[in-house]
Amino acid sequence: MSDEPLLSVDRVDAGYGETQVLRDLSLSVEEGEIVSLVGRNGAGKTTTLRTIMGILTPSSGQVTYRGEDVSMLDATTTAQRGVALVPEERRIFPELSVRENLELADHGGASGVDSLSVEAALDTFENLQARAGNPGSSLSGGEQQMLAIARALVGGADLVLLDEPTEGLAPYIVQDVMDIVADLNERGITVLLVEQNVHVCLELADRNYVINQGEIVYEGTSDDLRESEEVLDRYLGVT
Ligand code: ATP
Q1: Which of 36, 40, 47 has most ligand 1 atoms within 8 Å of its beta carbon, as the pocket-test mutant?
Q2: What distance in angstroms lies between residue 47's CA and the mean position of ligand 1's atoms?
Q3: Quick one: which of 132, 81, 130, 84 has its CA closest to 105?
Q4: What pTM did the predictor assign?
């Protein structure tokens, strides 16, 4: 194994047309880690994930995955390398059954990345197993989040980019989703987690990056961040 990180974002500038959002942004994720990117509304978290995925192209800097420069690859090609983005809006097919949603994500291992079979995914996510024949639209918010994550695994992801997976969920479901993320990680999936909710990050992440106005302003373990009152107060509104 190389000692290079699985994912590395180096000095990236990116944005939308003339609007620069990310400024000289660097972060890295080692294989097997859960890393969080935490910041307020509009800080640039989603833009970072879109840039990693290839939905946006950096105007300078570089994104490297498994040692390959993927900065100029489109999202489909990046997905074939084993990266999956689970967007905030979860994007499942509401009219298709849970099983059909999973089957559609199954690309037959074309990427060469080991994927979870549909049956194995249903075994992993008990709530989904019980609702395999029900339409996606009948799932609760938390179950839709689980289905979106399960789709990423069936699609062969080994790095999952999660955009605010707990957004809008009832507190007891937040815990379920956190348990699922921790479980995935124990099975070897690497996670880059974007959150506004620092408590989720502190519980789940090995390391955290705090983003403010498109810039990384802090990096530290969850133990360090928990003690960093000034960072929590200034950038995350938590005291
Ligand atoms: P949120 O939690 O609200 O999703 P975020 O940290 O994910 O916040 P981004 O969605 O990355 O933030 O947005 C960062 C900045 O980029 C914001 O100022 C936002 O208005 C701007 N922005 C986002 N999408 C676009 C777009 N399509 N065109 C122009 N500006 C955009």
Answers
A1: 47
A2: 6
A3: 84
A4: 0.92
Q: Tokens at residue 82, please?
A: 């084993």
- Exposure string over 8-28, b if 16+ CB within 10 A, otherwise e: bbbebbbbeeeeebbbebebb
Whose tokens are 């994927």? That residue is 115
With tokens 């990310």, the residue in question is 22
Specify the amino acid at residue 221: T
Tens digits of per-residue pLDDT, 175-232?
988 998 998 899 889 999 999 999 999 999 999 999 999 999 999 999 999 999 999 9
Q: Beta partners for 163?
A: 194
Give yes or no for residue 25 having a pLDDT over 80.
yes
Q: Which residue ranges have their beta carbon within 6 Å of ligand 1?
A: 16, 19, 21, 39, 41-47, 196
Name the phi and psi angles at 7, rounded to 5.
-125, 135
Spacing, Cα 46 to ligand 1 middle (Å)? 7
State both tokens at 162.
């999660």
Please write the tens of the pLDDT for every residue from 213-223: 999 999 999 99
State the distance from the centre of ligand 1 to the C-alpha of 41, rounded, in angstroms: 8
The residue type of 23 is R
ipTM above 0.90, yes or no: yes
CA of 10 to the centre of ligand 1 (A): 20
